[in-house]
Amino acid sequence: QVQLVESGGGLVQPGGSLRLSCAVSGFTFSIYVMSWYRQAPGKERELVASITRGADIINYADSVKGRFTMSRDNAKKALYLQMNSLKPEDTAVYFCSARNQRVYWGQGTQVTVSS
After folding, report:
1. Fewer beta carbons within 10 angstroms: which end of the chain, N or C?
2. What's the rounded Cα separation, in Å, for the pair 75 and 88?
3. Alpha-carbon distance values, 35 to 28, 61, 115 (Å)
4. Which residues contact residue 54 at a Cβ distance below 8 angstroms, ignoring those fewer than 6 apart?
5. Contact 106, 96 (CB under 8 A)
6. What is the rounded distance in angstroms from the CA atom of residue 97 to the CA atom of residue 70?
């Protein structure tokens, strides 16, 4: 059974930090390109960052470059997103996604940036 479970979301003040995690099971994590997406209320889901199988290439959306850092641990089958200098416009539900021949999604974790 394929599972992607995000955690680490919550309420944080502007300028604060959060670290999201995504624990996966049910598929061979190491051969999947992994991504973080987010969806704000009333907006389409957008790509935040993606990382190749061996973590040698990481791409970020312009809106998060220099503030967010994505990483993966293939041994632990885990994906991470360190989010620093958070802004109110980062408020969204954050999803992890796995892509190879198939695409898998987690259920999402809410991140709210507000004073």
Report:
1. N
2. 34
3. 15, 11, 28
4. none
5. yes
6. 13
The pLDDT score that the predictor gives to residue 73 is: 96
- Residue 37: CB atoms within 10 Å: 21
The string of DSSP letters for 17-43 reads -EEEEEEEESS-GGGSEEEEEEE-TTS
The confidence score (pLDDT) of residue 79 equals 97
In the three-class reduction of DSSP (H, G, I as helix; E, B as strand; rest coil), residue 75 is classed as coil
* pLDDT value at residue 111: 98
Over the chain (115 residues), what is each successive 10-residue block's mean pLDDT?
97 98 95 97 96 94 98 96 98 97 96 97
- pLDDT of the residue at 85: 98
What does the angle CA 11 – CA 71 – CA 64 come to, to the nearest 5 degrees?
A: 55
